[in-house]
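Hi all, long-time lurker, first post. I run a small reading group and we've been trying to get comfortable going from sequence to structure in the token notation. Rather than ask abstract questions, I figured I'd post a concrete chain and ask someone more experienced to write out its structure so we can walk through it together at our next meeting. Sequence below, copied exactly:
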Amino acid sequence: MLNERSEGRLMRLQHALGQGGSLRLSEAAGLCEVSAMTIRRDLAASDGTLMLIGGYLMLADDPRHATTYDLAVQRDRNADAKWRLCERALATLEEGDTLFIDCGTTLTPLALSLPDDMSLTVVTYALNIAEAVSRRSGVRLWLLGGIYHASSCSFSSDDMAETIRGFGINKAFLTAAGVDQRQGLSCFHFHEVAPKQAAIATAQRRLLVVDASKQGLLRPARFAGLDEVDEVIAEQRADD
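-- Answer (accepted) --
Happy to help. Here is the structure in token form:
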């Protein structure tokens, strides 16, 4: 149960973190003029708005510090930007293309908007992408199956990479949960690495589609360097 002083300290810390970022536990304690143990007790009794990871205090709902991925949560995040980016991706399509469309929510607008008057084939391991493509009557769909991962609405199997390499992929539309200039492209789930890398190795043209919220981040599973894609379809940030 929080007392008035504890609530005051937590409000001060939330305000300090209001613009994002993080605070060392020692910095948070100094800001509130109490011990680190007092801050720990405040957090233990709080509603979970703040979290302590690796000695750093941060807002629990800040997507930059997410440690897990939930497709349902991501579906409506930056939705307008994802539609704008996918409109640019659509402009790259050509008659007869075989497309690899990656998992996640960024490319859902692309899958929903594929033209019916083009002869296209789509290869994907993502159920949400497959469901969107299935609404396009003129598009042939290959859904790669295996073990289902509900958090990302995707599948994995031991032979998926080999299967992808068997397709003549003209364009691979790739997504990433993290894009870092030095560390390259990364995602949350290690089962996504093999299909992403197989598509990169196979496709004639590799296109990364990513909104600004992913830029400057590094997630647990690294799958490629920035130099391994041919084109980046992204939002221009003020600090780029």
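A couple of things your group might point at:
Residues 86 and 110 are 5 Å apart (CA to CA).
The chain has a mean pLDDT of 87.
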